[in-house]
Design brief:
190 residues; mainly alpha
Amino acid sequence: MPDTPPTEVHNIPLVHRLIATAGFVGYIPWASGTFGSLVGMGIAFLPGVASPGPLILLILFFLFLGVRSSKIVAEAVGHQLTKSATIAKEAFQKGEHDVPDPSIVVIDEVVGMWIALMFIPLNPVSAAIAFVAFRFFDIVKPPPARQVERIPKGWGIMLDDVVAGIYANLSTHAALFLIALITGNPESYG
């Protein structure tokens, strides 16, 4: 198993490589999904982006664009994984993985992270909680994330991260609510 994802992807149109790899971040050879999630979080911190309207539009736009681009990249490179992705799949996602989901594709993590941050009061603490929760659910893939991952043609690549983002969002809301209650300041939540 190689340490890095494939670099010979000259047969993939540049626009699809750019989208699927979140501006080539997916080529980072270790924990590319984590770096893709950080890209999503960083974009959310840009002025005006975390407002519900713009964030919903970004999620929808890149969800559908990501389906198309991840399908094209996955068909070209197959199920090639970095060592960290291989370790995570062996530890938390036992069994066969029929649908290719190469490590270089990280647009799904960007979109999933945006979902994790939806309707969350954006600050460093809430973003850190959402980030950790999203990475946990993306790696562990509790139902139905594991089941939707099997959907072909790029949909499974994107939708398992949508599910992880929803779980992370709900967990982040719960954590922030508990923090507000524990600190005696429930008005600070949201």
